[in-house]
Amino acid sequence: MKRSSWMSRLALVLALALTALPASHVSVARAETTSDDDISRWWGVAGAVLCGTEIRLVTTAPVIGMNPYVMSAGIAGCLIAVLDIATT
After folding, report:
1. In angstroms, what CA-CA distances link 59 with 15, 20, 31, 37, 75?
2. Spatial separation of the C-alpha atoms in residues 14 and 16, rounded to whole Å
3. How far is it, in rounded angstroms, from Cα 83 to Cα 63?
4. What is the pLDDT at residue 86?
5. Which of 6, 38, 65, 74 could form a disulfide with 34 if both were Cys (CB 3.0 to 4.6 A apart)?
6. What is the tens place of the pLDDT at every residue in 2-60?
């Protein structure tokens, strides 16, 4: 796989992960405590990781990536990430 293709996929997963985090987690100098809603947002980041891993497996190892169980986990991860972004 080309390096530019790998880097673009990594950038996509990182962009999804950063949009899933609220601004309080991105800034370093915030002294307030976080609410339960902010803490539960890690599901979106985990979903983005699953989604990116599934995309990587389908392109590099199709035998594993096209397995129905692996594919369902990847699709579920993409849906979790999108739902987390949509409910911001």
Report:
1. 20, 25, 43, 35, 15
2. 5
3. 28
4. 84
5. 38
6. 556 666 776 776 666 666 555 555 554 455 556 666 667 788 888 889 999 999 999 99
What is the rounded CA–CA span in Å between residue 37 and residue 16?
Answer: 18
Local structure of 71: helix, strand or coil: helix
Residue 82's nearest CA partner among 39, 43, 36 is: 43
H and E: helices and strands count for the chain: 6, 0
User: Residue length, the chain?
Assistant: 88
Q: Name residue 35's amino acid.
A: S
What confidence tier does 63 reach under pLDDT thresholds 50, 70, 90?
very high
Coil, strand or helix at 21: coil
Structure tokens at 40: 């539960």
Closest to 73 in 3D by CA, of 64, 84, 61: 64
Indicate the residue type of 9: R
